[in-house]
From TrEMBL:
InterPro entries: ABC_transporter_permease, MetI-like, MetI-like_sf. It comes from Hoeflea ulvae. The chain crosses the membrane at residues 21-46, 79-101, 113-133, 162-187, 208-233, 272-292. The keyword Magnesium does not apply. The keyword Lipoprotein does not apply. It is a multi-pass membrane protein. Keywords: Cell membrane, Membrane, Transmembrane, Transmembrane helix, Transport. Its main location: membrane. Belongs to the binding-protein-dependent transport system permease family. This is Sugar ABC transporter permease. Residues 76-291 form the ABC transmembrane type-1 domain. It is found in: Cell membrane. Pfam families: BPD_transp_1 (PF00528).
Length: 301
């Protein structure tokens, strides 16, 4: 009887058949649009395509031209500065804000809304808002000078040496609220008994956070790291709205380089090569994350 019952059970292929059938359009979209488009981009990065794609392969010539371009090198340098500082300040700032809100302060919902509100705005709106705030004629500099400090100077968007730091201010304002909410959710998931045990043992609060709480929030930190890093790599609209890549090319970033090369310079091959380098950067970030999240679990099972 048991054998007959087992034979009548549907195989794994037919379990949740409706859900699998409903997922077919999404799977096809991923394969055709994302995977197919990615392979097409990589393939044509080895061609001499200009206004239209053409199958005239030139080997690694596009990549050699790419890495000999001063504009591309400046964009990579800007991305490195923006990326490293964003990761540090967003992660630390988001965690500190979450730790403060986790103290059950009054008007917590109000503060949480205020901190998260910038993330609800697009990067275009954020860039324009901070362009006005940092404008020396009617922004921070003008306000401080009107208070009596006439020698005060603060115009980062008009100084090619520090313009990327002006962009960084807007980026931090936009992203920190999201990371705060993720960290706060992680803190609220810590069992209250753990906090009580640490207090009974006389462990200082900062040690509880560093040696107990943060290790328990490993998954939250990895997720936040991936979100912030992916946003850094594709940063484009913030630059366009705030500086337009200027002064000169001082605030160029790779995503803007790709757009300008493909649609303004009409050099598809060069743009595909730059896109492929950005894809490689994403792979370098995503693969270690996937290994940490899924590879380790597979070994422990």
């Amino acid at each position: 009887m048991d054998a007959m019952a087992r034979n009548k059970r549907p195989s794994n292929w037919f379990r949740n058949a409706n859900a699998k059938i409903a997922a077919i359009p999404m799977i096809l979209t991923v394969l055709v649009v994302f995977v197919g488009g990615t392979l097409w981009t990589v393939l044509y990065s080895f061609t001499n395509s200009k206004l239209l794609p053409r199958e005239k392969f030139v080997g690694f010539d596009q990549y050699e031209r790419l890495w000999s371009s001063s504009k591309w090198l400046i964009s990579i340098e800007n991305l490195a500065i923006y990326g490293v500082l964003s990761l540090i300040f967003v992660m630390i700032g988001g965690f500190l804000l979450a730790a403060l809100l986790d103290q059950k302060i009054r008007f917590e919902n109000t503060f949480r809304t205020i901190f998260l509100y910038p993330f609800a705005l697009s990067f275009i709106v954020t860039g324009l808002a901070w362009q006005w705030i940092l404008n020396p004629d009617f922004g921070v500099q003008n306000v401080v000078r009107s208070l009596g400090w006439t020698s005060f100077a603060f115009d980062p968007l008009y100084n090619s040496d520090i313009v990327i730091y002006g962009v960084l201010i807007a980026g931090l304002w936009h992203e920190t609220g999201l990371i705060m909410c993720l960290m706060l959710a992680g803190l609220r998931g810590i069992d209250e008994d753990i906090w009580k045990a640490c207090r009974i043992d006389g462990i200082p609060t900062w040690k509880t956070y560093v040696f107990v709480v943060i290790p328990m929030m490993r998954g939250i930190f990895i997720t936040a790291l991936v979100l912030v890093t992916s946003g850094i790599i594709k940063v484009y609209d913030l630059i366009v709205a705030q500086t337009g890549g200027g002064p000169g090319i001082a605030s160029e970033v790779p995503a803007k380089y790709v757009y300008d090369t493909m649609f303004l310079s009409q050099n598809l091959g060069q743009g595909f090569a730059a896109s492929t380098m950005m894809l490689l950067t994403v792979v370098i970030v995503v693969v270690p994350w996937a290994y940490l999240e899924f590879g380790g679990k597979g070994r422990r099972v």
